[in-house]
Amino acid sequence: MPINRRSRRNMKRSATKSWSNLPPDIVNLIAENLYYYADYADQVRFRTICKSWQSTCVPLKEINLQPWLFSCHSRSHLFDTTRKLKYTIKTDPRVLDSKIEASKDGWVLFSKANINPSPFLFISYNSSPSSLFFYNPFTASIIELPPLHMFSSDKATFSTAPTSSFCTVFVLSVYYSTRRICISTCKPGERTWTRHFFDGFYGDLHGLTYLRGVLYCSFCNNVLGAFRVSTNSWKIYPHNRIRPTSVYLYYGLIESEHEGSLLSVYYDSHRLQWLVFRFDLLKENWVEVNSLDDRTLFLNPSSTAMKLAVDDASELANTIHVECSSSFYKKPEDERLQCPQSFDWILEENPETIVWIQPPLKRGDTSIQISNCRDELLNDCE
Hints:
It comes from Citrus clementina. This protein has about 375 residues and is mostly beta strands. Helices cover about 15% and strands about 40% of the residues. Residues about 115-125 and about 365-380 have low confidence and may be disordered.
């Protein structure tokens, strides 16, 4: 039976009306899935389709993904710590036998060295230059850097993602015999390293982090060094009064994103408690932090992160996680409370081959952004 023009118009009107009159439960279900499987902008666009959806939807939620874990030992794996998924990925063979230096914005900085013993102070020196490169386990992308002669005690980090024009790579070397330090800098795409030498000996290098145009370096002699990139200048600040020992274990410097401050983290192995200090740039001293303000610290020798624990991660508020082990920052008043072990399902033993990494910006986009992989549910994890 042919359909006349009036019937077609009525059908269009009814179709339009049916979309705008979706039951509130269905609208909220779609909005919730946009939160978990899309990004903040998609939530906004969804609400602008019609007025009824805007009034019905649950409040907007900004994605605050907790970091994933990336391991590269005999095989490479990615662990989605929110949904408890494990991905086995194919990587460049160099990744499996290289050293993890740092992780930021979904990229990992590696160094691969040919180490020969040095005749002084139990340090090894490369007879041939080390190769440094960036690797993104979500896309399998590699960005090469120029070769550089390095000591085995050298540490490296970078300012932002290597795809950004603002990215700078830093390598800090301690010259024990001449009592100097050297900071080598390079941008992705450059063919050579620029080396900056400064007089002074402050003991072994413990950690590096980049914050707001300054590379901060912590040394074992309670010294904090600051290298300002814009002026290539070097300045020394006092470190806090706690000296790393067998009792006070030092976990490095942390860039606190939510307030743009510098944190230093220790663990008191005698009292079994954490100590976190914040550096006051105006007073040039360290102040102990009494609370993490519902945030979560993720620690690792090569990467650190501090995230606000919201929604499904609220149980992680005011907790600290070193690889797969979790503990409260401050002991709760009720001693019967146990810190949730949210990552004990991840079975990786070597901390030198595992690193926290920023996941894709879209929660559910792993099937697109992770190439050459297969995912395994928690029950299938090895």
